Protein: Glycosyltransferase 87 family protein
Amino acid sequence: MTSSTRDEAAGPAPAPAEGPLPNTVVVPADEDPVAAAGSEVFGGPPGRRALLGVSWWTPARFLVLVTIAVYVLGLAQKLPCYEGGWFHGATAQYTHACYSDIPHLFSGRGFSSGLKPYLDPLPGGSPDMQYLEYPVLTGLFMQIAAWLTTPDGVIQDREQWFWMVNAGMLMVCAVIAVVAVSRTHRRRPWDALLFALAPCLALDATINWDLLAVALAAVAMAFWSGSRPVWAGVFIGLATAAKLYPVLLLGPLLVLCWRAGRWRAFGQVAGGAVAAWLVVNLPIMIANQEGWATFYTFSQRRKEDFGSFWLILMQDRGQQLATLNTWIGVTLVLCCLAIAWLALSAPRRPRFAQLAFLVVAAFVLTNKVYSPQYVLWLIPLAVLARPRWRDFLIWQAFEVLYFLGIWSFLAYSGDSKQHGIGQDWYHLAIVLHLAGTLYLCALVVRDVLYPERDPVRQDGSDDPSGGVLDHAPDVFVLGTARARHEEETYAEYAPDGEPDWLTKP
Structure:
């Protein structure tokens, strides 16, 4: 046992031959200098009673309260827009960096008029988007908020109310997500404090409805870590019904189950995902297939947009790329194949959270749009993949710079006074935005190639979020891992005292 763990038992226990002690909790302040310095703000590292759960301040309760506090700070940051920035002047919401899609779509998507999502055409909708352009579960979330919004009063007051209702519902999603993250690495619940204190959680939480999918995906990973693949699949399916990216989690599970020979577990998670997705989507597909398909057709037809590498390329070229979807698809497939090779050839089977982070990061990096709120997709995965405060905060700093950069650029381009940054500076903000994500990807890849550097595995753990994959032996490996696997197999079955060359073909 290293200094990074603390015994939950009343007295000392003997060190095991290998792996971490049972009933221990990893305290980031004991193993991370940045976390140790930050813990002094809260009175130092957690004490023995807190670690044992004897104190009222259990990790889950503390994390929930911190998440709510950070979330409320984010709501306060949106106050200039709430008091008129969304309505008085096109650029006020950009100069105050408090933009949100939510109040604008209350009227723009027909909720203020009582239109039914996916069934009723939008007022003044374009030929490419005649119905709500969000996945079905997100549309249901929006509809519930509309039902809870007062039907009377001027439209501005109703839009403010709609935003507040959504903000409250999304705060519940944030709480669910932080609790799920804390229970995914059960010996490392305090790592979830990275999620709770993430600056981008405060800044981006109410831009759009992404936290719904984030919460469902986090619950899915918690169920997988508890060796409940069917329920993990159900929540992956529900998350995919709210946003497309969670379906990518099935890719890492496929290659990891392939390497470990756990095909039954993968079949259960895939079956649960398909079943849950169909339960949510089939009723709308049957009722109005065109309305249901709007999200997918709109995503295919939209052009390069804010935050993406493709936007820089197209603006520098001065023309659009007719085969943009093909280029994006090929680039993403190549990235996923590289991640699959990494998973099958690494010297030790990667952790699920590591591959999950890499594949979702590949998706946002190659996508035609990388909106500022997409960082919310990556925060829980980054916490589980590499729980190191310095690297996490460096990445968050890049994301905060981009958050400020995009609103400054929109203020510059939307107002004749041109208060803000021009296109060249905005392109630099995009480059830094992408570089921050690539920086964290590089660290995760390094941890996969050199498992002894993985902060989660330094105490002897294997894959705390791996569920049935935790400590499972390999049955299919490639590259250097294949050679090492064969050597271990020969060593295991070679007769005592007989040289290796007699037992090898």
User: Anything to note?
Assistant: Residues 155-184 form the longest helix (30 residues). The two ends are 40 Å apart (CA to CA). The beta strands are 5-7, 24-26.
